[in-house]
Amino acid sequence: MSKNCLVIGASGGIGRAICERLTAEGYKLLVHYNQNKIVIDRLCDVLPDESILGIIQGDLSTNNGITTFLEGLHFPIDSVIFASGKSHYGLFQDVSEVEMDKMINLHVKSPWVISQHLLPYMIQNKFGHIILISSIWGEIGASCEVIYSSVKGAQDSFVKALAKEVAPSGISVNGVSPGFIDTSMNDTFSEDDKRMIMDEIPVKRAGKPEEVAHAVAFLLDEKSSYIQGEMLKVTGAW
């Protein structure tokens, strides 16, 4: 069975860890980034040459960016991992409508449109995987992260609903719901804030990007084919 995988957001901490894990599992990757070309080049330097199908740039926070991205998809894709995203911290009443639109496009519309684009090939082959990296806030919500919590909640619902629709065609749709992971997304927190969060997490530490990547590899494994429409928590029991 072909193992061509599209990784959306490969330049982020979790995205890079996913790429490293999947190439070790024998996958061939089409890697996406928006702005961090240097990070993508460094990633490709450490991955086996034969594991990289190509690199594709795209600003998925805009309608034009999504359209341009789709025009650059020239490889048959068996699996897609949506690992891109950005947080938004601040009072809800201070969020502009422009920022709302960007967050919806990036976290909700682009997974919709890209999945819609890839599904015909997967359905024809009776095989495929769609995995979204969501967040613990998609389930329980977070003060001062209302927009981020909202779009992650939409991702959770998308996973659960689409899984029911395409499971008869041999396609699995699942998500991974990380808690506090040690990535640059959390650089906005002060050291005191981080210590307070660690005190709340039963395992007393931040998660590692490699632990999220392990969950993704688990969901992609053929032995996990009966897992459908699930959000796999990687939270340290937070």
Write up this protein.
The protein has 238 residues and is an alpha/beta fold. It has a single domain (4-234), classed as NAD(P)-binding Rossmann-like Domain (Rossmann fold). It has helices at 13-24, 37-46, 63-71, 97-125, 137-140, 146-166, 191-200, 209-220; strands at 4-8, 28-33, 52-57, 79-82, 128-133, 171-178, 231-234. It has a seven-stranded parallel sheet with strand order 3-2-1-4-5-6-7, sandwiched between helices. Strand 2, helix 2 and strand 3 (52-57) form a beta-alpha-beta unit. The N and C termini lie far apart (37 Å). The mean pLDDT is 96.
Topology:
Blueprint: E1 4-8, H1 13-24, E2 28-33, H2 37-46, E3 52-57, H3 63-71, E4 79-82, H4 97-125, E5 128-133, H5 137-140, H6 146-166, E6 171-178, H7 191-200, H8 209-220, E7 231-234
Parallel strand pairs: 1-2, 1-4, 2-3, 4-5, 5-6, 6-7
Helix pairs in contact: 1-8, 4-6
